[in-house]
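Worked Example 4.2. Consider the chain below.
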Amino acid sequence: MPSASQTAQDSAAASSVTGDGLPAGQKLTLEEMTRIMDVAATLRKERALVDQQLNIDQIKAKLRERLLEAAKVSGDPVTAAEIDAAIASYYDQLHEFREPPAGFQTFLAHLWCLRRSLFKWVLGLVGVGAAIVAFGMVRHSQTTSQVNNLYDQVAAAEKSLLARDDAGSLKGELASKLAAAREAVEARDVAALERINFELVTLQSQFLRANSLYEQAVAAEKSILAWESAASLKAEIESKLTAAREAVDNRDVAALEQINSELAMLRGQLQQANSLYEQAVAAEKSILTWDAAAALSAELKSKLAAAREAMAARDIATLERIKSELATLQSEFASQYSVTIFSSPNERSATERLWTDENGTRTSGFFVLVNARDDEGQTVEVPIHNRETDRALRVSRWGEQVPEAVFERLAADKKADGVLDEREFGVKRQGKRELEVTLKGEDGQPITRGGQITSW
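Applying the procedure from the previous section yields the following structure tokens:
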């Protein structure tokens, strides 16, 4: 239940409000009453207009009925479809917009209507303009930095070249390029600076390459002229070096490479020729250490003279042939072996065959089959001359021609027990060139060596 104090407060508040809803002691004036009635009338008319617009279909139906009744009264032959079409046309054109006449006020009105869009466009254009200006400033700064860097590179390349003692011929050309580079800096011509920089880099590369090749040519010349056998080439080599100096001045790298290639080839030929000649000299000295080689002194001197001529002419093929002949001769003197006849029961020890002699006559010959072994019993290859093919060969097994009587004696020896007892044919002693035949003939003396064959 409410308290007594709360009830008293409610009664006091009710007594302070009059019957028209206003606080006690306050009354509306006539003017205020009139204004309130006008506002209420306006609200009522607007509400009626809204109701009318929302009930457009009912309005069209009532208008259609009235038009049909009016047509009947006037006797006008109008159909219901025509009246519907007229009503639809009326309402379609009821709110048609017509552009106001052009003028300054209309223009201002358009601007006001488009103020937000125009403001956005203006902001956009201002932003684009600011971006263009900023880009231009950045681009200008980048171009300036690039121009300065390129000019610094050009100046550095010029200094690098002029620092060389052998670059005197380039001073005029370098000064011209540096002047062109300064003009390009003033014009901010990046393309021109890049071209000049590329030309200087190329020039520097060509100059360094040309000088390197020239130094190689000079070194090759000194190396070649150090050979005693190159004395006859001095004029030719000096001519090549003069051509190399001209090529350096013209920075003709291809010509310098060609000259270096020719000098390298010449040096290689001389080196090979001298090496082969030295080997021939060493072989001659080694041969002449054997007493038995004294008879060959003239032949050896002749070969050595031919080797000197071949060395001067850089005739490698002739030098290799002479060296090979001397090496073979040296090997003949140094070798030592024995030649024995095959004695095993399972192999032939001799053979009879037809062969063609030096006169081209087919002759019957008798041969013993032999092999060569060193002091350790190992088979070795030795030089022989094949009588049938007239060719010098190195073999370890071959046939030696013997007289018929010796052939028959050896055949009887092996036939007796299947083993050949008389096996030694000859001995090749160190320091001797020829084989010493020890196989005796019917007279008790060693037989004379005949021809050799390699097939039987």
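The mean pLDDT is 82. The CA atoms of residues 291 and 431 lie 7 Å apart. Compare this with Example 4.1 before moving on.
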